Amino acid sequence: MGYRLKGPVRKELLALRVRLGQLCSHDLVKAQHIMQEITVLSRTPNGHSHGLVVPRACSVCMYFGHTEQHCVVRKERDVQTEIEEEARRRLVLYKEIHVYN
Ligand SMILES: [Zn+2]
C-alpha cells in the first residue's frame, strides 16, 4: 500500500493481466509463468510483493485473471436465470387468472 507503480511497469503489468485473462485452466503452467512475472514486476522497492503467486482459474468459466464474483459468464447466466424465472412467474400468474376466473 502507498507504493505507486510507475508508467512503463504499469503498462507491462496490464499487458500481462490481459494475457493471463486469455488462459484457461488447462494452461496452468503458462499462467504460473505470467503470475511469476507479475509478482516480480509488482514488487515494492523494499522487496514486498502484493500479488498472489498461485494462479487460480475462475470456477465458473475456468479462465484465469478474475474470480467468480467478477465473471462475465456468471453475470450473463444470472441474467438468463432471472429472465427464465420471470417467465415462469408470469406463466403461473396467467394460469391462476384463467383457472379461477
Ligand atoms: Zn469466469
Word description of this protein:
The chain has helices at 7-21, 28-41, 72-100. It is an all-alpha fold. The protein has one domain (7-100). Helix 1 runs antiparallel to helix 2 (28-41). The longest helix has 29 residues, at 72-100. The N and C termini lie far apart (65 Å). The mean pLDDT is 86. It binds zinc ion. The site of zinc ion has 7 residues, from loops.
* Beta-strand segment tally: 0
Mean pLDDT: 86
Largest sheet: none
Strand and helix order: HHH
What's the number of structural domains?
Answer: 1
Strand content: under 5%
Radius of gyration: 22 Å
Quote the distance from N terminus to C terminus: 65 Å
Count of DSSP H/I helices:
3
Low-confidence runs (pLDDT<50, min 5 residues)? none
- Please give the oligomerization state of what you see: single chain
Catalogue the ligands.
zinc ion
Structural class: mainly alpha
